[in-house]
Amino acid sequence: MSLVDDLRRIKIFADLPEEDLAWLAGHGTEVWLATGERLFNAGDPADRLFVFFEGEVQVRRDGVFFAVRAGDVSGMLPYSRMTQFSFAGYAVSPTRLAWFSTDIFPEMLRRMPVLANRLVGLLTERVREATRMDQQREKLAALGKLSAGLAHELNNPAAAARRAASALGEMLVAARENNVRLNQYPLSSKQREVIARFELEASRRGSAPPVPFNSLEQSDHEERLTAWLERHGVSEPWKIAPVFVDGGIDEAMLDALVEEIGPEPLREVVGRVTALLTAASLVREIEHSTARISELVAAIKEYSYMDQSPEQEVDLHTGLDSTVTIMSHKLKKAGVLVKREYDRSLPRICAWGSELNQVWTNLIDNAVDAMTGVAGKAPRELTVRTARDPGGVLIEIGDTGPGISNDIRGRIFDPFFTTKEVGEGTGLGLDTVRRIVLKHRGDIQVQSKPGDTRFQVRLPVSP
To answer: How far apart are CA 310 and CA 352, in angstroms?
Structure first.
């Protein structure tokens, strides 16, 4: 089969006159690729248009790929501003194609003007698909970062709750064992009433907010209680004393107890009260840990706008707070202090809430990365500020990093531009931010100097 016949089977060339197909075929170079053979490398000049007849070529860029197959036209297209291939393409099956030099484009479009609209449409479709893939890739990259931090943040309170629950079981067993031993004493009803009142008072004091002691005062109280317990033959007093101090039990209470019940059952009473106070403390720890888990789950729901319509009236502060919560692991790991300067009088705005949260995520993530790279002990502060703006509302994300140099400030919103090392960023974050802000009919600007970089996002109340 001739190259003319091959071209006639390609949709955009199918209805061209025979002489035009013959001219085009005369300027084409036919290529056969074996499986695994490369068609072009990243960095090669984008000086060829490819027409595929058989097989399949995968185009890879940092793990992301798309495929071109028989019937497709790809490579450098007329009116494209691409200067070099930023990816590599290799055959995944035996492939046959033809390539055409960009040098023939002016004459080709003069001879076959109908191709102009077709190839521009193909270029537009390719840009749209590339944009969709980039957006999806950016979302996946952000999801990977957030999920890693969330896993750590959820694991801490979950592990704490699990440890506390296990220890709580041990304390309940200890309380039952002391109760069995205590019942072996021939206690009068008055003595049992005194023990019950002592335990009730200990529980009341234990559930109240602890008296704030400094470390020296805490140590003194524990030493006095340890000495008292030793004098009265209570085993392991060094374990019991801290529990009693935290529970507000002092020597006077214990003296009054011994005077009423005698020294014989003291060991069992002290053991049972210690177990009950420790159990109450463990219950509070479980409550605190599960509350933290619930807080994180709520932040996830607010961040993703789960079970809510994509576009709605949103509270900017809720979105900002949920984003900070989601990223708390990275903020703590980097030693970043978060300062909130909110104008609580701002109105709710009509927006795509989950997409705005993606904006805050990228800006905060970049700010933390910038501050992490600062040497020495310079303060690391992230400022999240909201204010009214003549056209709507202003959201400002500021950091104390080294700033953005003038020679790259004009390029930071370009797709794939990044100052990070290979593998440390997608180069999509600020391009995604800009697209989302423009989608909301807003504006984003940056002001930067060493120690003070601010990204300012202005949004209308109703886009």
So the answer is: 5
Domain at 3-112, CATH class: mainly beta
Report the distance separating Cα 218 and Cα 285, nearest Å.
21
CATH of domain 310-459: 3.30.565.10
Q: How far apart are CA 273 and CA 202, in angstroms?
A: 7
0.70 cut: is pTM over it?
A: no
Instruction: Read off the pLDDT of residues 5-35 as tens digits, 9 standing for 90 and up.
Output: 999 999 889 999 999 999 999 999 999 999 9
First to last CA, the chain: 57
- Burial letters for 140-179: b for 16+ Cβ neighbours within 10 Å, e otherwise? ebbeeebeebbeebbeebeebbeebeebbeebeebbeebe
Q: Each residue of 308-342: pLDDT tens digit?
A: 556 788 889 988 998 888 888 888 888 899 999 99
| 386 within 8 A of 395, measured Cβ to Cβ | yes
**Could you tell me which residues are beta bridge partners of residue 76?**
none
